[in-house]
């Protein structure tokens, strides 16, 4: 999981989106400060001699250097609202990155469980195959001694080949989980440690989980917090548009040097300066601003609905995950008891068959049932772990796991 959080390609893309959003906040914050431009120019102009101005000054050469400054007074909060919107966008992007990281971590854990479960089911099927082959050898020996009919051999061989036919599927499932794990880690299967191809137990699960209350859920879930910040950003954009209803005041100024020839630019008397306030008020725009505000209000309402829907889905996901985890643990406990009894039934059936107290069908049935229950138990172990991963993800990660409850 740690390696995936550093190398997963989806997370790298989300991180770049976060960097871009942070830059947008910097742009919005810069709106509080004045702008200063440095200008340098040279202008040559030849006037017509047939005009009054050209008769006296037929040509002009002007060299100038200047600094122009402007500062918009944020009287109506437009700049402040733009900063609030950009800040909310940044937080939403950050929570989106956390949600993506949580999904990647959960997917890595699920895929690892799938890999170990497929390997375990393959080992169980291989073990059952060996036991069934031993049974087949026993029946063939009894056939040679004239103690059983050929049908018993055919039935035993059918059991063997049926079990053998499941091995390629389980091998393929393990291989696909291995390959998927490589992609989640941002690499190729050749870059994974070879030890992953060797069977290993499933992770040990805790006995007790501290879930917390609904308020804890809302604080932990990054998708819920992202939706809330998106709603806040849309509300701030309404404030930006509302500020455009009022006049904009700005203070501008200019200071510089100018002369007819370059050598005189820095001499006494070449300086010039200017300063003054300005006002701009959009008195008529054909209703553009009015409709823009309506559009932003609708977007904000949609963001609010999305936030409420995200909260409800988070609660639903958590409730479902807790139910699935609890019910699968109950099912697994029953399968553990059933597996023990099924293996005992196989031993009894084989003993009775050797002693001639039962027919071979009882052996076949007991072996088939035992193999099915063993496979179901392995799948249930994986399901319990997968459901616990789903519960961790539904709770937003960071679940407190204790041994005491």
Model description:
- This protein has 405 residues and is an alpha+beta fold.
- It is 65% helix and 14% strand.
- The strands form 2 sheets. It has a 4-stranded antiparallel sheet, with no helix packed on it. A two-stranded antiparallel sheet has the order 3-6.
- The longest helix is centred in the first third of the chain and has 67 residues.
- The radius of gyration is 38 Å and the shape is elongated.
Question: What are the key terms here?
Answer:
405 residues; alpha+beta; two-stranded antiparallel ribbon; 9 helices; disordered C terminus
Number of helices: 9
Q: Strands of the largest sheet, in order across it? A: 1-2-4-5
- Proportion of residues in helical segments: 55-70%
Shape: elongated
Q: Major sheet: size, sense and barrel closure? A: 4 strands, antiparallel
What portion of residues belong to β-strands?
5-15%
Strands, count: 6
**What is the alpha-carbon Rg in Å?**
38 Å
Mean pLDDT: 86
Name the helix and strand elements from N-terminus to C-terminus, one letter apiece. HHEHEHHEHHEEHHE
**Helices and strands: which structural class?**
alpha+beta
Unreliable spans:
399-405
How far apart the termini lie comes to: 26 Å
Draw up the topology in text.
Blueprint: H1 2-7, H2 9-29, E1 35-46, H3 52-56, E2 59-73, H4 78-144, H5 150-184, E3 208-210, H6 214-220, H7 222-243, E4 248-259, E5 271-280, H8 288-354, H9 360-394, E6 400-402
